[in-house]
Design brief:
With 140 residues, the protein is an alpha+beta fold. It is built from 5 helices and 5 strands; from the N terminus they run E-E-H-E-H-H-E-H-E-H. Bound molecules: zinc ion (ZN).
Length: 140
């Protein structure tokens, strides 16, 4: 089964399940699929690209989901970049960041864990740090 987001000629979007791509196209062109909102059979497949989804007028929920998915993708990329290029120092992070800041050790990019309290102290001392969001974060 394939799930498609469908859209009628009045821009209502809804979901439809089909055995396959061809079956979907056939049912659509034969007028066998109707919009649950207005019963229109002028139904087409909605494009799945986020850029198109955000153009929908009446689905704030979808917009937020798309924005969230895009944001998560960016965060995952950022995290991946950091994990590949930065040295992991674990819970030594606050101490190591401080030593780098004060020139007590080699200047380099590091990442690791810090409590909210530790992070705040570092910021107050003028140490440049940034939170690294996890890929599983769901709040927004
Ligand atoms: Zn409709």
């Amino acid at each position: 089964m394939i799930r498609y987001t469908l859209m009628c000629d009045k821009d209502h979007d809804f979901e439809g399940w089909f055995p396959g791509i061809e079956a979907c196209d056939k049912q659509l062109s034969a007028g066998l699929v109707s919009c649950p909102d207005c019963n229109s059979t002028k139904v087409r497949k909605a494009l799945m690209a986020p850029a198109v989804a955000t153009k929908k007028q009446d689905s704030a929920m979808d917009k937020r989901q798309v924005a969230m998915a895009a944001q998560q993708a960016v965060m995952a990329k950022l995290r991946e970049h950091v994990e590949n290029n930065f040295e992991h120092v674990g819970d030594q992070f606050p101490e190591e960041a401080r030593r780098i800041h004060y020139g007590e050790t080699e200047k380099r990019d590091i990442y690791g864990e810090a409590s909210v309290e530790e992070a705040r102290e570092l910021v107050e001392e003028g140490v440049e740090i940034a939170p690294l969001p996890g890929p599983t974060r769901t709040d927004a």
